[in-house]
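S.,

As promised, the iron/sulfur cluster run. Input:
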Amino acid sequence: MSTVDPGLDLFAEIDRLRRQRKALILAHYYQDPDIQDIADHLGDSLELAKRARDARDAEVILFCGVHFMAETAKIVNPGKIVVIPDLDAGCSLADACPADRLRAWKQTHPDHWVVMYINCSAATKAESDIICTSSNAEKIIRSVPEGRPILFGPDKNLGAFLIKKTGRPMDLWPGTCMVHETFSATKIAALKARHPDAKFIAHPECEDHVLRLADYVGSTSRLLEFVQKDAAGKFIVGTEMGILHTMKKAAPQKELIPVPYEDRSAACQGCNQCPHMKLNTLEKIYLALRDLQPRIEMPEDLRRRALLPLERMLAIS
Ligand code: 13P
Ligand code: SF4
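Predicted complex:
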C-alpha cells in the first residue's frame, strides 16, 4: 500500500478530495471517533443501506464500515463507485456462513423460508429469501407467513433472541459475533450491583445470559436513541465501544460505562472493539479517495440475486 506523507493535513486533504470526487462518506458507529466526525452520515446497518440506496448526487460512496456493508451499498446503488478504506475489514458472522454451506443447509430444508442477517456476503444474500438487520429483524420474522418454517442465520444469538420475542420457532445457523460474544455476564452483574442507578443496554448479538440482564435490547441506533430519551442518567453500554463517542456527543449529561468483557485470549487488548471495524484509518480514507481503490465490484448476475432479498426487506422497513 502507498505510504502517506506524515506532514499531510489528513482532515483538509480528505475534505478537498471528497468535494473533488463528489464522494459521500458513510460511517458506522463502531468507527474511530475521527472517522465518525468526518462522515456525511452515521448510522446502523439499515440506515446506512438506505443512505447508500438514496445517494443521488454523489459519484462515489466511501463506506467506512466492514465489507458486507460496503457490498450492500453496491448492491442497492450499482451506478456509484463504492470504495472501502480496507478491503480486509470483514466480519466473523459473514465468515461463518459461506454461500455453499447455506445452499447445502437449504437443500436439507427445502420447505423453509431463509431469513439472513445482513452481516453476510453478497453470495450468501443471493441464497436468501429475505434479509434483516438488528433494527428490523422482529418485523421481518413476523412478515413470514404463519406456518412457514424458517431457517435463520448467521447469528445464533440474534436468532435465539428473535425466537423469544416472536414465539416463532426457527432453525439457527451457529454463527456469532466475535466481539459481542466476549461480554461477561458475571462482570456485568457485578457492575450493575455497583451502579444500581445504571441501566444496562445491549445489542442483540450478545449471548442470551447477557441479554437476560439487559433493561433494553436494540440495534446500535436504537441504543443511541434510548440513551438520549430515557430518564436514567447512567448506562452500561453493551455493544462495541465506538458508539460511546456519538452517545457522549448526543447526551453529554449522561454517564456511559463501556461493557466489561471476558479476556478469552492472551492477545486481547480491548475485546469490546471490533478488530475489523478498526482496520479503517484516516490515512486509508485519504488513499481510498485519492485512488478510488479498493473498490467493491461483483458480477451483475450475483448483484441482482442479492438485491431481491434486500428489496424485500427495504419494502417493509
Ligand atoms: P447494527 O445494525 O446495529 O448497526 O449492527 C451491525 C453490527 O455489525 C453490529 O455488530
Ligand atoms: Fe461483525 Fe461483530 Fe464486527 Fe459487527 S462487531 S462487524 S458483527 S465482527
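The domain at 180-258 is CATH 3.40.50.10800 (Rossmann fold). The CA atoms of residues 14 and 286 lie 5 Å apart.

- D.
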